[in-house]
User: What shape does this take?
Amino acid sequence: MAEHRATVAGLLGRTPAVRLPLADCLGLALAEDLTAPIPLPSFDNSAMDGYAVRSVDVAGASQDRPVELPVAEDVPAGRTDLVPLQPGTAHRIMTGAPVPPGADAVVPVEHTDAGTERVRFLSAAAPGRNVRKAGEDVTEGATVLAAGTELGPAQLGLAAAVGRAELAVHRRPRVLVLSTGSELVEPGARLQPGQIYESNGIMLAAAVREAGGEAELLRFVPDDVAEFRAALSPRLSTVDLVLTSGGVSAGAYEVVKDALAEHGVRFTKVAVQPGMPQGAGRYLGVPVVTLPGNPVSSHVSFEVFVRPALRAAAGHAQPHRPRLSAELAEAVRSPRGRRQYLRGDHDPATGRVRPVGGPGSHLLGSLAVANCLIEIPEQVTELPQGSTVGVVPLR
Ligand SMILES: Nc1nc2c(c(=O)[nH]1)N[C@H]1C(S)=C(S)[C@@H](COP(=O)(O)OP(=O)(O)OC[C@H]3O[C@@H](n4cnc5c(N)ncnc54)[C@H](O)[C@@H]3O)O[C@H]1N2
Ligand code: MOO
Ligand SMILES: [Mg+2]
Assistant: This one.
């Protein structure tokens, strides 16, 4: 299990760094430490709409004994010429506008009569009140995001706030998803007896994209070695990974195994259920991971082996999904010797998880209503209701 995971992870190198506009960086991993060329805030500014004052000038002001000052300047946000505040005067100031030199507090407009020529203060203000100090959030030169950080909305906002228009990020890994099987038919077409609709390709391509990769999908490769190689070869030069589904177990017509084993791709049985038959290696120099064809096996083994490897290749410092502990809502049994990934319904509110569907790796219906995988270790055969189990939320 751990060995196969390491093999798959070892196949993929980091994708190169590229500079992209911020709007194209969502979900990607930073390829550089982001430092702040300016502090944040970049200048002392007002937290409130009101009046900038010297706190000593409004000391003792109250509802009953207002203090009145002349309004010498009007400072909206965006005003760039800073006029110092003279003692005994006030500047009308708006939220985000620069606090003038000489002022040490802002009195909110609600604590005044809102005058424009002269203003009456109905309360005092301690020094520093409602002033957002330069650098109190981010100091100039500080590393604000480390390389490997996933760029979400807040991280992109911060990059813009410190003045960056572009960032160096790892480009998305390019994955060719190739589903094999002579029984597979395009969804929407008429099914002959013995045929099924192709579903792994669309599922795996979506999983690749969800993991942060780019997917090219090739869906109807028949169980024929020559046709399989012919489909694969012209695409090898443009992809970082080939991900196949089907044709890897023990029967006849195992097209993936038959086409790739002699080229050095290693096929093994991994002590995991679902997802036992696996293959990994290089075909003509290009990393290949071969997933079993049963839909649940395909999905789960993508989650367990491929997703973390893809995310690590894309530069993510945290390639794994978070793993939680939860309380089993019902007892489970598990065969010895293979780590089980049961499909589960996890309720974060109660911390309880209930297995959904059975262990069969064709049970796509129950996979689709599950929101997590429940991990049962290899040596565990029975767990009573109320046991603590590891849970990997899938969405
Ligand atoms: N004698 C043995 N038989 C099997 C073994 C074994 O060890 N000995 N392992 C079983 C396990 S476990 C799995 S998992 C499957 C893996 O099979 P393959 O990877 O060879 O996949 P196929 O035989 O091509 O297909 C299996 C199953 O999945 C359906 N399938 C395949 N591709 C798609 C697709 N793109 N969309 C929808 N459904 C797909 C296919 O029709 C089969 O029903 O082998 C067991 N057998
Ligand atoms: O490993 Mo198979 O994936 O048990 O169904
Ligand atoms: Mg097979």
